[in-house]
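To whoever is on call:

I kicked off a structure prediction for a single chain this morning and the downstream step that reads the tokens threw a length-mismatch warning. I double-checked the sequence; it's 418 residues and nothing unusual in it as far as I can see. Pasting both halves so you can look.
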Amino acid sequence: LGPLSPRSLKPSTPSTKTLHPRYKYDPEEVLGPKRFRIDGRLFERVDLEVLNKRRQRLQCSHYMPVLEGNRAGQQTKFPCVIYCHGNCGSRVDASDCLDLLLPQNISVFAFDFSGSGLSDGETISLGYYEQDDLLAVIDFLRSSGLVSRIGLWGRSMGAATSVLVAARDPSIAGMVLDSAFSSLTQVMYELANQYMRQVKVPKILIHGAISVLRKSVQKKGNFDIRDVNPEEASEKCFVPALFAHADGDDFVLAHHSKHLYERYSGDKNIITFGGDHNSPRPAFFFDSVGIFFHNVLIENAELEAAEPTASPYSADLNQMYSLQQQYLSQQQSQSRAPAPDLHAVRLTPPKEQPQNSWGDSHAVAAAFSPLMQPGQGGGEDGVIEALQSSLREMEAELGPNDPNVVELRKMLREYQSR
């Protein structure tokens, strides 16, 4: 989990770097051909780099329709959905969006956040710096002359990042938010309780551990984890949003999306389904997403041209499903040519192809595992040892009278006295 990994609680030298499990891939092998067909129509992928404000190169792919026949060579602006992947993910995760959005003449822009995939950077921040990456991508697309309206589709970290950005950029046409967390600090407390209760670590030490993590992030990452707060940002969001969450998610619990939904100021809908954080999404989820983006990127663009005061999003889910059935009927009536090229860029490729085997929950399990092993510096004694080591480092750097040092020293003394 980048600088937020509980591995940073292990005794270590100040020069030790903490890295998150990172998916590295060969674009030529995993992303597939640069030109492919869906239902007989031609599309292309353009690979490029975008610089964020920290001068880091973000590796990107823009999937767009290719005009043929008497429209060949014409310059056309298409609406665009930017896919924002989750922790340990990459732009490869956007491949499952292609056959849903491209046939609707909606282009798809996928990229690796800094510190992820093939982009520059070594660590992630679970939303703090990722929002600057997303803003850089949005600025690039708006200056490119290739897109009209822009929508966001975020998963987990990418969903939380999308909320943070929408609070700053109200011109976003709409967002799909899959498994967003409402507060990074809350997620950390929940994960700490989930993984450390197996060794019956007292809550007072969990609070101390989170306090140490927060200070470590401030020092190494130059940001405060409390500032990654999508729930607070959601009150400033008026962008139409479709929230989604798996009810069996044990990594980002389902109540996070519910809290975001309740506090969200814009037009909104929420759907839930079975599964966990990393399970494949059901068909009706993709149906809902397809209709949502049809409404906010295509249909409402036409309405606004005729009625500038038209509401950006008024359809409820029943109307969305009705539109979806009309859309599917139209597609089935058209000629359907095989598109073998598209299969090479599926989200779930054949087993012989490289794929990201690290889900978010796998990463956290690995991060907490050193603290869960009794003996060998792990378990409850391992947590205390790690906190004592962190206390010594903080005393050396901040001095014995620093409030954070005093608080942690008091917690340890109280627990040891018991």
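Update from on-call: the warning came from a stale cache, not from the record. Cleared it. Sanity check on the structure: DSSP finds 14 helices and nine strands in the chain.
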